[in-house]
Structures are given as C-alpha cells and as structure tokens.
Protein 1
Amino acid sequence: MQPTQQVIHFYDINCQYGQNLHRWIDTNPLISILQVIHIQPGIGIWHVHGHCTECFTRYTLNFIPRVGNVDGEIMETLWSSLNIVSPSTCKMVTPH
C-alpha cells in the first residue's frame, strides 16, 4: 500500500482551472502525474471572496485539512505603496 501525497495548488481561478487540469495532463504525451499524488486545488482568501459561495466552501484555506494560511500574494501586499502612482494612470483614456 502506497501513501498518497497531497499537493496544494493555489490559483486565482482554480474553480475552473482545476476542473480541466487532469484532462489536459492525460491528453499530453509528455507529462504525467503519479497515481500517489492528489492535487488539491485552492484559492487564496483575497480572491475567493469574489467567487460564488460554493467556491468559498470548496477552495478556501479555512476548509482544506492540514493547510495553513498564507500572507496574500505579492501584488496585493504592494498595493498600498503603489497607490502613490495611481493618479498618473487615471487620466489615460482614448483621447490622450
């Protein structure tokens, strides 16, 4: 009996991406996934709130056993310091 290795895969749209991942891998002759690997899709807490209720309960870190929380993604943590340049981009429209 071989133990199963759980792999947590985070992606902003894992509810859609994860549905097709195994099909894509199965149809590609160059890659494969070992049978002992279980890929558990997840969506970070910041992005999962923009999805439907079913996505929250299925993909949030709070409900995946043996998974800890992460401190956001790089862009989200930089937004507060990047806000200073936002006035220079708000006037970029077609006439300019």
Note: The two ends are 66 Å apart (CA to CA).
Protein 2
Amino acid sequence: MSSLSQQAAPNRHQTVCVDIDGVKVGGGHVVRVQSMTNTDTANIDATVAQVAALAGAGSELVRLTVDRDEAARAVPYIREKLLAQNVTVPLIGDFHYIGHKLLADHPACAEALAKFRINPGNVGFKEKRDSQFLSMIELAAKLDKAVRIGVNWGSLDQDLAQSLMDENAKLSEPRSPQDVTREALVQSALGSAERAEQLGLGKDRIVISCKVSEAPELVNVYRLLAERSTYALHLGLTEAGMGDKGIVASTAALSILLSEGIGDTIRVSLTPEPGAAREREVRVAQEILQSLHLRSFSPQVIACPGCGRTTSTSFQELAMDIQNYVRTRMPEWRTAYPGAESLKLAVMGCIVNGPGESKQADIGISLPGTGETPSAPVFVDGEKVATLKGENLAKQFQEMVEAYVQKRYGGA
C-alpha cells in the first residue's frame, strides 16, 4: 500500500489541529479512530478492562460516561490503573446536564481526562445554560483540556430550533422542517464553538460534531460544517444500529464524507449484541479507513465469494485461517516489522480469477476449484514461486507469509 497509510489523503478539508494528550486530530493528520465504553464508569475494574480492550483493538481515544458523583470519583483511579498497565489512551469525559457540577466537585476527574464532551442542547436550560456552559469552558481553558462540542438531533437546543422555525414560517417560500433542523444543528455547534473561543478556549482545543441517525442527513450536515468552519470534525451516526444494519449505515455515511476529505476522527456507534465484544466498532472503523486507503491497520486478505466452481470449503477455511493468523501476528509484526500492516494477501478458490488476483497481491494463493488439478500455485510479488499440495497446505502457506513479512519489512 502507498504512503497513504501513514499520512492523510490529499485534498482533505483543512482543519485546525487539536492535540489530545499526544493524539493529533485534524490539521492534516490521519483520521483517528475512537470508541466509547458501555460499562458503569463507577465500576472501576470493569471500565479499566474495557478501555484496555478497546485501546488494544486500536481505539486511539476512548470516551467514558460521567453522569454522577460515583462515576466522577472513579475516573482518576481508572486512569491510574490504566497507566499501571501501560495503557496511555486519552480518556474523554462524556457530560450531560450536570457536567459543570461534577467537574467543579471532582477536580481530580477533570485533571485525569484529556477532553470534555459537552452537548449544547443539555448543558443547561433557560437562564442557567450560559453560566453552566461558561463554567465548563473556563475550566477546560484553565486546565488546557480539549473540548468536543457535540450536537445531537435527539437533544437539540429547543430554543434555537423553535426560533429558526418561527423565522422560517415568516418567509415567502419557507424551507422544509428538515432543512431548518439541519440549520439548527450547524448553528448550535458553530455558535457554541465561537462562544467557547470568546471565553478563552483556543480553536486548537475544539472539536465539533453534529450527529444524526440517518446516513444521507449526516452527509448533508457535515458538508455544511466543512463549508463554514475549520474546526476539527468528529464523524459518526449517533445511533447506527445493530449488526449488519449498523455497519452498513455507518459505512455508507462515513465513506462519502471521508472520500470528500471531510472528517478528522470517527466512531462507529454500533449497538452491541448481547455479550458481544465492544471492540467490534473499532474494527469496523478501521476497515472503513483501510478500505478507503486512508489508514493501514492490518494486512488485507482478499478472498473470492465462492460459486459453483468452488463446492469445496477449502479456500474458505484457508482464508479464515490466514485472516486469524495475521490478526494474531499483527501485534508483534507492528513492532518488529514496521509497514507489515500494509501487506496485501489473496486466497482464491479457482482458476477463473485466482491466478490474476494472486499476482496483484503481495503474496497470494489460488486453490483448485471443483474439477481442477489438486494443486495450488503461490505468487509472490507477481511471480509464481511455488505450487503447494496436500493436507499441510495451510501451514505451508502461513510459513511463506511469515517469511515474506520478515524479508520485506525486516529492514524497516
């Protein structure tokens, strides 16, 4: 893969860089992957375990719910235990309704966090909104903390939305309610960010987001944000959904925006299946970025879907074995063989596309399909180098992959 694995794609929307405890977001840096725990933050051990798992999967920022005193008190202990495990991922505090009070009452929590997440729609209501927003922003500025001003259409500032609706009703050609809601989202985010700057928070400490649940609407909102500002942008559907639906919806929305150069950090907000690992949302985000050639995280394994020519499951089993093998080896390869994450492998199932795809990969194998000669040619850098046969074929190919990684990336 090209050097795009190490740098942002060209023609990206230019935004201000925000340094979040060493993780640089925006300013031409690579698009960052983040996630959020779903443990009770007051449960220190469970939260530490999940943060460590998310960071181990590749999450570069992890957000925690800070919703009450017990959660706020737990945050510094969570940070301490993570550091003892050499887990240095920046922690983000997710605050709603009483964030101003929790930060004031628990200064150790504020110190332990790398970033505060503030929702303008519920930071406070009526006459309290400005003072409570002010107290959080002033504290962030004092402690030099980054802030994400995150607007959600499910908790939009109703005063602003109603004001825009009233203005729209007076127009000779009123816009649709959807257009007005979109405008309210953007105005809420940008107006709050500008207010934060007036209160002393630097533009290089502000990330903004406007999250909705529908992919087309997310694209429309972020195009407006990109046109009107240079703040670092966090992308993601606010509720993507479960399983395939959540993955497809997130991929549809984020891929369009990222391909247009919009977005500095992303989260895939999957509804977890009961008992399923939280890390899946991290892997999906990585796959989106890797598929767009914006980042490289792990070697790509290309495999055909199978058809009537491939009635044997051998190539499917080998593709799974190789996928699991590279994931298992990647932690060591990342350290010992820099660049191995950009490796491209092919495991194909018959003679139709098998040899051609295998030649295009760095290393590839074309297994025999139904009725074909029971032999599997292996191609390295476009050249046929071996033909494998027999029951030990999978192990032989793994050994060839390992040797290729050591030879190609060992001198990096």
Note: The longest helix spans residues 314-336.
Protein 3
Amino acid sequence: MNMTLPSNRSFGWTFTGACAIAAIFYPWAAVVACLTAVVTLTRVSWLTPLNRAWMTLGELISRVVNPLVLGLIFFAVFTPVAFVMRLAGRDVLTRKWDAGRRSYWSERDPPGPAEDSFKNMF
C-alpha cells in the first residue's frame, strides 16, 4: 500500500489528544498520552513506525467498513423508497413500454443551450 503519511509531529499530537480523551474512561490511557507527548517533543522520528502502522490499520478498516455502510444505506434507505414508489405506481425513469409512443425523447421547455455553445470548451 502506497500512502501519504501525515507528519510525525501531527500524528503524535493527535494521538496524544485521543489518549487524553480516552483517559477519562481508562486511567492507563493517561500514561500513554504522557509518553506520546514526551516522544513528540523530544524524538519525533520514533513515531514513524507507529504512524505507518496506524495509517495501515485505518486503510484496512476502511476497506471493510465502507462497503458495509454503503450497503446498509442502500438497503435501508433506497430499497424501501423504491418499493413504496412501485406500490404507488410511480415510474420516475419512464421505463414502461408504450407501443403507441413514437419516441421516448423528452422535449425540453425551454429548450437547452444552443448547439454551438459546446464548441471549443477547453
């Protein structure tokens, strides 16, 4: 995996802050926050392996969570809406076949932009 890492200093302070917040619930996190702050102030290069490991973990988690969240949104939101619309007989995309229609082109009123307006766009 080829990723761009944040600076070790910003990683160190972010991790220190996260551990300080976690110390509200877990007292041992205060020790980790203090150690990370000292390392960030004195030997910031020591944080490179932790920074790389943290970003790799985040990327791996995103490969699992993103499809799950998007699937959940699709099946929890869009599928019920489409089902209700079908029950109501609504055809937003006008997909029903009509043998009596000459064309399925939609007329625009007012008409779209002039034909010559798209020449030499770049």
Note: Residues 30 and 39 are 14 Å apart (CA to CA).
Protein 4
Amino acid sequence: MVVGHDWGAPVAWHTALLRPDRVRGAVGLSVPFRGRGPARPTEALARHFGPGHYILYFQPPGVADAELAADPRATFRRLLSATSGGTSPLLPVVEPGTGLLDLMPEPEHLPAWLTEEDLDVYVDEYRGRGFTGGLNWYRNLDRSWALTAAWNGAPITRPALFVAGEQDLVIAGVPADALVDALRGTLTDLRGATLLPGCGHWTQQERPEEVSAAIIGFAGDVS
C-alpha cells in the first residue's frame, strides 16, 4: 500500500496507475487524482490563474529559491501557519513585484499542532541544502506530463482512499459532492473520501489520530 501527502499524493496515485500489479491500495492526502489533462500543466495553470500562480512563480530558477532561503525559519513559520486550519484558504497567486511569502502574514502564534522544536528540525534540514531540490520538482511538471502520455484518460483501478481538510487550499471552493463525483471518475474503486472539518492543508500533522484511523481502516479493508 502506498500513501502520500501533497506532492506525495500524485506520487502515490501514479504508482498505482503505472504499476497496479505492485499496489494493493493507494491513499492520497490533500491532493486528489484528477487524471492527465489535455494541455501542459504550466499552460493550463496560466490559462486558469494567470501568470502569477505560485507554481508558475516557481519556474524561473533562482527566484523562489532565494526568497524561501533568505530566512528559512520565517519561511516555514509563515507558510505552515497560513495554510493551516483555522485560516481562510488563500489564493496562491503572486502579484508582480512581490513574492510568495507576501501572501502569508507573520502569525501572532503558531498553530496548536506546530512547535518551535518542529521548526528547528525544518530549519536544520533546509539551512544547508536550500529549497532548489524541491522547487525542481515543480519545474519538471511539463516533463512528467509528457512522460505519462500513454496513460492519458486511464483511471486508477486499485482500491483508493482520499483524505483532506475541509479548509485545504487545494480543494477550496469545490463542493464535497462535486469532489467525490470527480474522484469516482478517476478512481474506479474509491473506498472513501474523508473531509476533516476545521482542518487545513497539513492533514497528518493537524489530525494525526483521524488520519491514522482512516488509513488503518482502509488497509484492513484491502488486505
């Protein structure tokens, strides 16, 4: 069984899509499986959101890298707080002459699930390495899209579970019924779609007990 959150969710979904013979079940947290679109991802994002969408802001090498690495502690504090539950889901579109962190105010306090010790771990990991490795994943979106041409329109046939926070910016504005209907169109054996009230983007950190229970129940169902 493969489980992934955020960018890990597309990795989990595509593992099940490309190698169903090796996957008993797939769980995606936060990011639903939408299938392969007809246009390059960067073109589709520009058409729907304009040139300031954060993924497009990430494309030029060096720009977001420098912004995020200037003060890693402030980056993680603002990013994690602004996308947590209890805040209004933000529209991640960067205006000309600004940066991604300009969308994310300095929090008065950390969310209950996040501690200064947690931030210490993130800062230690990124202080030396920087953010370029992660940003390069975004910069390969179109290449990844091109490599999956043979699976265009193909659904995932293995058992699947989706879990997300109701306040997650990834699914903001999508009614629950419409989300489930869309999932059923790409996941032919959808065993459940759980939306956690009051939860933001960081599902497993914000609601560890509920997420763990959902995954354990799913694992028992497909074993």
Note: The chain has a mean pLDDT of 96.
